[in-house]
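Fold this sequence, please.
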Amino acid sequence: MSWITRLALVATVLIVGCAELPITALPTADACGSVVGRFEGLGEGLAKSAAVADLSTEATEALSEDRLTALLDGVRAENTKLDQIQAAYTQVTECRKAEVRKVRAAFKEGRLDRVAADRGLAELRRLYREDLLLARAIGGTMDRRGCAVHDADRTLATLAATDRRPAIRRLVRTTVEARRRIAEQTASNIIKRNDYIASIVQAEDWRDKGFALS
């Protein structure tokens, strides 16, 4: 064998060795695991934290300006938790969508064969469904706690409108601003919970059509 032939064979081996062959497997680790873990942790934290007290179970004589201030702080804290959960769920869904785009791009560019791409999308769809189940469970916790927020606001409104006892009338007169802010925060709580449910509905719609390979 001449040196030219040998050189040609070596060159052929190098070319084949450096060629980018199609990938037939995807990483097994969940690329979105950390954001899903944070989302789940926030949901667990919401479930374990103290809910806004139902004022209808308290003696009206126990109500005071300090009690209403504490209630306002409680509703604000509840709404902050809802904001954090909404942001975390958005991160989860965006992460899943990014992974789907990666699989599609790898298939389109020839870095992933169809079998592996279909398998990857099927796994992402499974994880996405699990995310939705988690999101629905957290939404149930939101709604149960939201009832306490709404009931507290309704109790205050009823007292202000119907309770004629002097002590209550004095409380009504001195807590106009606090009660207004509680009502605002209660309305905000309802909007936040509705927005969260709307985001889940949108995610369910994407689940049904967002995992096609092309």
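Residues 1-21 have pLDDT under 50 and may be disordered. The first helix runs from residue 3 to 18.
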